[in-house]
Amino acid sequence: MWQLVNALGSGKMVEFLHQRPDFVQLLAVVANGLGMDPVLVEKDYWIMHSLWGLKA
After folding, report:
1. 3-state secondary structure of 40
2. What is the pLDDT of residues 2-46, one digit of tens each?
3. Is the dihedral of CA 32, 36, 42, 48 positive or negative?
4. DSSP symbol at 19
5. For the chain, is the Cβ count within 10 Å smaller at the N or the C terminus?
6. DSSP one-letter code for 42
């Protein structure tokens, strides 16, 4: 897991959605709600996760 450090130096653990056991079901729910293929929702998730990692 990633550990974020704030300006005061204390860290907190971050839970990412892909670490949840129901991640695949979450993708399916989002895809169904948006009328999209779950593969495209997952692709978008990983793109955003990568961008978040670059800023950290």
Report:
1. helix
2. 445 444 455 667 789 999 999 999 999 999 999 999 999 999 999
3. negative
4. G
5. N
6. H
Q: Which residue, chain included where needed, has tokens 């079901």?
A: 25
For the beta carbon of residue 55, count every other beta carbon within 10 angstroms.
5
Length of the chain, in residues = 56
Task: Give the separation between CA 5 and CA 13, rounded to whole angstroms.
Answer: 9
Which whole-number Å values give the CA distances from 53 to 15, 29, 33, 35, in the listed order? 13, 25, 27, 28
3-state class (DSSP) for residue 17: helix
* CA distances from residue 41 to 2, 7, 12, 14, 49 in whole angstroms, order as listed: 23, 33, 27, 21, 12
